[in-house]
Fold these 4 entries.
Entry 1:
Amino acid sequence: MSGRTHARVCPERTCVGCRERAAKSDLLRIVVIEGECVPDDRGTLPGRGAYVHPALVCLDLAVRRRAFPRAFRAKGPLETADVRRYVEQAAP
């Protein structure tokens, strides 16, 4: 035996709201389409992605800290209404 374990590594991403690292599957991917932040729950939309916990607390922190324009390297504010609607519907 070589002493190595064969554990599967789970990819991690950082939430742009609370700045905590979490499993990629626990976070919601956000992409920008024509100046609007759009939720990408399946992770298949093209382009740069930013990750946030699917909770209003983290979303509000990201908006307040202006994390989305920084993450997407965009000039000016981005519309986050679609993401807010998605998170509100996903919350129990």
Entry 2:
Amino acid sequence: MAERVILETGKTFSEFSLLTNYTSKECTLQKISLNTRLGNLKLSLPFLSAAMTSVTGYEMALALGKEGGLGVLPARLSIDEQVSIIEKIKGYEMGFVEDPITVRETATIDEVVRLVEKHGHSKVPIADRNNVFVGLFSFDKYLDANATPGDPVTTIMITPEELPCTNNSNISLEEAKKELKGNSYLVVLDELGRLVKIAFQKDIDNISVAAAISTHKGWKNRVKSCIKAGADMIVIDTSDAYNEFTSEVIKEFKKINDSIPICAGNVITYEGAKYLMENGADLIKIGMSSGSICTTQREKATGRAPMTALLEAAKAREEYHQETGKYVSLIIDGGVSAAGDMIIALTVADAVMMGGYFNHFYEAEGEKLDESMQVTNHEPDIKHIATWGEGSARARNLDRYGHVARKTFFAEGEEGTVENWGRLKPKLKQDIRKIKAALSNTGCMDLEQFRDKAIIELMSTYTQQIIGSTHNMQVKE
């Protein structure tokens, strides 16, 4: 008989509901922080894009990195490809927004909010018909204001006198960087007060990027090359990290480097997480067979419900912290596809890694396809984006899934397409607002408080149907 038979069913994120708690008047969306610390790396968003060749390349790593998350470059890329992308991201030069989206002074607040939701910008310039700068709409100020959607946007705008502005329309990037010190943006006008361009502080901040490695031969060269290029984290990416190979890599890595954090995974048990912690991992990645394209459970009957796996790893984290005083961050990888999943996951995890979610965006590496499933580079025609798992016949990531040679390979992932959601920024911003709103409901100002104070409740199947979706009505299309 098996050593242990667990009869309690595994749980995923959508089976839980977040309970509310007391919220002070200070706990508003604009004051809530989603900063997270992964080892000694600080991110302003708790999101990592999966180390999948259909998801993360230069465009995804740059777009997510600019928003404050972390792109993880796949180990299936060559060392030269990883290094080239890291160097390109680290050498990214800020640029002015030369043709910013503007609204007229006659626009309503509702019209501007719709633009914010469409494009993901939190600040929208207001100009008259001659492009003379009138003021700036700030989404944060809108959240604070007691204004109705039909009010003119000018009633809550920030006036030019309150803003960091310059009338030097020929200002250089270096001059703009100096002006940006202490400011989050700089509005550039000409001598007649007409809007020329805008510079943003976030475009000169350091963009973080990570590189994945395997436990197989050649990993040391990859690590040394990627760290030299400027990688902020190294991720051991294997489907099952509860083994001697992974522990040896962690120990050897620590001899090579003592400043860049190393993330090890994936594991799905208390024992697996504790093993990696005891062997020196700075972060642990949790998950197996819960990804949208993964077939490991189907092929090998191996895997675990993601929330159950995460809760088991959290027990190991707590115990290890009590024993050693060292806190090891947990990253959930797989099974997270919407803001609700992210919220429940973040009651336990320090960050969320997503493949399927990020695969939907224009910045993903998969081929872009039109309505007839033909490859296209014309953005308005893109309806679908190609996706494939690292264990699929297309990727054949032998190292990640422990296949010693092609002759032993069998697929543990599918290949297909996902719907195009457009550019990453607008959708990501919407989901960030949902997460912050959930934290506000629980009275939490940041993710650390959220992990300490959140109360979640398991729902029955019937309860999920009642409170998880609309019912007893025909939804208007």
Entry 3:
Amino acid sequence: MTNKYDAAIIGGGIAGLTSAILFAKRGKRTAVFEQSTQIAPLLSGFDRKGVHFETGFHYSGSLGAGEAGGFLFRELGVDVPLEQYNDQFYDEMTLLGSNRTFKIPTGKDLKKAYIDFFPHQKEGINKYFDLVSQAIEQTPFLNIHKDRFLLDDIFRFNASSKTLKEVLDELFSDDEIKSMLSFSSILYGTPPSLASFFMHAYSAGAMNESIWKIKGGARVLVEAFKKAMESSGVEVFCKKKAVKIEIEGDEKIIHFSDGSTVKSDICASSIHPKEFIKIAPQGVYRAKNIERIMNIPETPGFFTVYAKSRSGKVYNYTNKAFLRDGSYKNDNKDFMYINFSNLKPQGLSLILSVDSNKAVWDIPKEDYARKKEVLLQRIKEESLQYMGFDMDDIEVLDISTPVTLNRYVGYYGCYGPMHLNAGAGILPITKIAGLFVIGQGVISPGIIGAMISAFLLDKIIYARK
């Protein structure tokens, strides 16, 4: 590590890696600093007893060659082996109240499947899909691959005074279809009563046309980013936790927990916006803006049990969500979700939604252990009840809580801060020249949201020159 870089990136998630490649492509000497032992720790997954578990990615929409994600990969020079997730359906949702299961197809069959399942809600279903399509078509950053917009248009975002809940309540009388359509809020971590309908369309609607998986899992995506960074000359340093940023003239001085420092002309932070404020120099935002960001609620957390079959039984499912009776009225705050890996040997990820409030989890070790045991017992009982699992055949290999997530990425919620309908977004620019923020807390969550935040920053700097 040298003492000076043209561009320094704090945080080695997908947003940070994307931004690093873009800076390097512009001839900047660029370095990435990641606090964990490896880059993209949330996406890389982990292995237990020969079983690989995905932790931050299972599938995504809009990754095809003619779609936004595919375009971004090509621009970065990231070669990702993709394949359609499933030619029939990619998820199942079971309504526990009526004991009905809906298999979610992709593309042109999706709307018809909803109409067949809820024929009495046909008019609302047609209007819903029309509204989602309109929102996507009108959003410049989701059409970044089409050359339909001028440079200045890229910074235009649709705003809506209506929440997802308000739109669904206007369109439908049946709470079950509202519960199913709003369950996709799990993809962006903001409940229906707080989420903008447009944010819902950005995240969930992007999967209405196609669903993609990565051959070999998300670790293959991480390796593809590594290769692209190596070929671009990006330097990467792990176990480097930034604790303070100072300004000296036009330079940014980044202090790390090990006592080392580096200087840079440009500094882009992809860590949680609240954590960025803690290490940023004075004057990074107006006081009112700092207060607003610090008060943004966190997205929900996950309690996840990673397991496998002792006998080697293979479950021929994709993913299954279990929606409780009254789930919609409760803002989808309590659900169980099971991911059945398509890798071999097969792993099972049993997930409960839980509170991500730091105070709930920052407790004495004995209380934390008891909380884990209670949740583990609950997830075992519900897996037996809903799936008929032979629990003697299910071997628990590891458990993850919001505490685990915080240890690796620095926040307790599954996606960091919520994207609220009523609140202004967090934009890449700060009040300090050359100091920026990127990441899924900036534009929208997920891999595409993280990459787009970095592309927008690149366009902001480019437009100013």
Entry 4:
Amino acid sequence: MLSKWIKVSAAVLLILFTVLSFSGQSQAASSTFVTKGNTTSKVVALTFDDGSDGTNINKILDILSANNVKATFFLTGSGAKNHPTWIKNISAKGHQLGNHSYSHPDFTKLTAAKIKSELDTTEATIKGLTGKTTKPIFRAPFGASNAAVLKAVGDAGYTHTIQWNIDTVDWKGVSSTQITDKVLNNIVPGSIVLMHTGAGASGTPGALPSMISKLKAKGYKFVTVSELLKLPAAGTKYTVKAGDTLYSIAKKYNVTVAALAKANNITNYNLIFVGQVLTIPSKVAPPPAVTVKYTVKAGDTLYSIAKKYNVTVAALAKANNITNYNLIFVGQVLTIPGQTTAPPVTSVTYTVKAGDTLYSIARTYNTTVSIIAAANKITNVNVISVGQVLVIPR
């Protein structure tokens, strides 16, 4: 009888041990706090925090593009809401996206549930605009974090919390020279440089060309945070380690368990083994369909509009409930059937006024300095004159 109870007790303990072990494995680890890359190679990651105004985004993007530099932008949900097109521009230029919260609160004063809400809302907003995830990198507002914050952030799927080892304090409005000197005097292999996109960081756009040129002269190469830390990307291979579960791996790479299992022909989600090499499926978001609209202008006919968009007059009329092909009016907005691309490029003109800069004009028309400069054959983007008529591509 005693022997029977011993066996039963042992079985119960084994079950409890297994359940507790599995529960412990499925929980995400705390986010890793990073101030710089652990490397002797001359690489540096330029990072920009974007708040609600994002005034200098297009200036920064133009300069980075001109110098063939990729950077990392930590985005807020409020910023994405206020200037969505600029956020799309950051993504379209191939820069890395990170999560910087939704409303920029001090995370050390929030509950774990509120932290998750801030991160999840921002992730959904950014992914909705760009089709790209902000995972696995996060930057704490004000740089404020502690053990509780790192745990909550890790549980939300952000494996790395990115601090910095060079703070330009550009948000204080310091000069371009001060920003450049701060970076050059403190640069070491693996440095992470903190800068900002907002109006307060007025010296940053002016500092970037010289900073980049001088760092290149010192032999430095520019990388994203993920490249600096060698963080794995979707589509790569992952070798299973002790303590891993299919659930924890899927969460780490921001893919579904089902997709991960399918990519590796796994039928039992609970059966993976140490040393097993898994393929991480790539997540490719289909481009959003664009409903193309056209506003009728003086001189337009239904025939000329149909020809412009390579559709039939009948199809154009049907899409807009037009029964008389000869009756359309100036200002009427037509839906172009079967089109998922933007309408042909048109342009407007703008007469330069006192106080204007090419940057302020580009911002007003939601375009880039380089596009306006090219359209007007401007070689020095800092030289425009009052009364000059500029063509603004639309």
